[in-house]
Amino acid sequence: MAKILITSGPTRQYLDPVRYLTNASSGRMGAALAESALDRGHQVTVITGPVSIPYPAGAQVKSVLTTDEMLATVEELFPQCDGLIAAAAPCDYMPRRVRSEKIAKDGEPLQLELVETPDIVATVARQKRNDQWIVGFALETEDQRFRAIVKMQRKCCDLMVSNGPTAINSLSNEVEILAADGTTIARASGAKRAVADAIIQATTPLTQGL
Length: 210
Ligand code: C5P
Fold this sequence. Notes:
Bound molecules: cytidine-5'-monophosphate
Radius of gyration: 17 Å
Mean pLDDT: 94
Structural class: alpha/beta
Low-confidence stretches: none
Number of helices: 5
CATH topology: Rossmann fold
Shape: globular
CATH superfamily: CoaB-like
């Protein structure tokens, strides 16, 4: 039995009190991973951005809004966990300046200056103990496997799940699970729950190696 932390869903970055940047991540992959891990007897905590899907009752769920909040919650909870599965699609950009009042339309183009948000996986990978593991996701439109391997090395993940843009807000997925040396451990397709089972199965050696 492992203690598994799962990030899930999108995050939001506000421009002003009512408008925000986000993406179409549904949280379904995170929910399927939580179900699969619970069925295998693992203890599960999900850190989720705003989603409209439910998470399984057996999971502890922490809700966050922004990428910074998701990072802070992962940094708080990961030290008590064996593994992190980063299925979230955190918003990668935030406005350099967040307006405290609603931006008023004036008929002119609105110039926004965006800066990158922190990378949650890369940040916690730097703090990771030898007895902990991290599974990242790479969603790419081109050169999927190559870019996933580069991302796995840059973010120091132990496994990488490579998937395409059709995964977003979909009921099904098609993935390749890559080991740290770049070899393909498994391919899985179909309902997100079936894909989640293959991913959780692939983490078994990581947990057993603890
Ligand atoms: O967005 P990107 O393709 O770089 O995401 C790859 C992996 O990094 C995913 O597992 C995602 O959850 C994670 N990520 C993150 N923090 C970000 C952006 C992505 O942890 N700010």
